[in-house]
User: Fold this.
Amino acid sequence: MNLAATHPPTSSFPVFAGSNLNAWQQTGLLAIPGGKGPLEHFRQDSLADPIVYAEFTSDLPQPRFGKRWRKAQAAEAQFWRTWRQNTLYKHISLEAFWQEVVEKTGGALPTGKVLDVGCGPVSVLNFCRPEDMQPFGVDPLAEVYARENLIECSEGLSPMPIAGLSAEKLPFVDGALDHVICFNVLDHVSDAPAVLSEIRRVLKPGGSLRVYVHTFTSWIKRFLFFDTPHTYHWDHEEFKHLLGDAGFQVDHELKEPKTFDLPESLLGKLTHFPYWVATKVAYTSYFRLRRD
Assistant:
């Protein structure tokens, strides 16, 4: 008898417990990644440990990501370790930054069960959420952020739970969520159409998706092969078509030139030359969408 076939191996993924993981467990909406069955057991090594492990038995294949995606993830982790040392970011107010993004993606954030896909350590839901929102995050680097104490949260709010998973397989049953947020993420993933398909799966019919990505003029894209942190480069219309092909209706969109608060001096511009170039060829594309 093939015991491996009879008893699939036990798998797990890390979860930064945050403030309301217990409430999520009680909803019955958490699932094996990809929605293939209930997710019931969580193991915590010690009370002082911010990480728990969601364990499940499954024959799901292990994801295989390309070399470029792995390099992009390494670059992402290093960015968050040092981002406050960058003169362009060291004085940024995250509350003000996220409030501006929220307005550009269609106004105040909704209530209900909300997922931030690719949330990073400074999720908008840790800074701008209404009181009656039940937030959750997914990010493949969640354990890095928790172990290295990189997660930030607005005063008066508690950080949300974050599952350490890539977005191609989300840990929810079908139609579990009222809303999904995916800010500056889709151009970093391994398989953008698969991520959008998963987002659509976990959204309720009529649920909303808010997205922003950096887009580019068509002619410059061929020269961006050196841009390690980004696995995709779209222009605005290409990205809009991608969203439509995934089954989303556009309720709101905005395209504006990419800007940075660059130093005025020539030396300052030379020091931050890639950022200066970005202001000439890059845009930010904002969307609020609805699952059909």
About this structure: The CA atoms of residues 50 and 169 lie 23 Å apart.
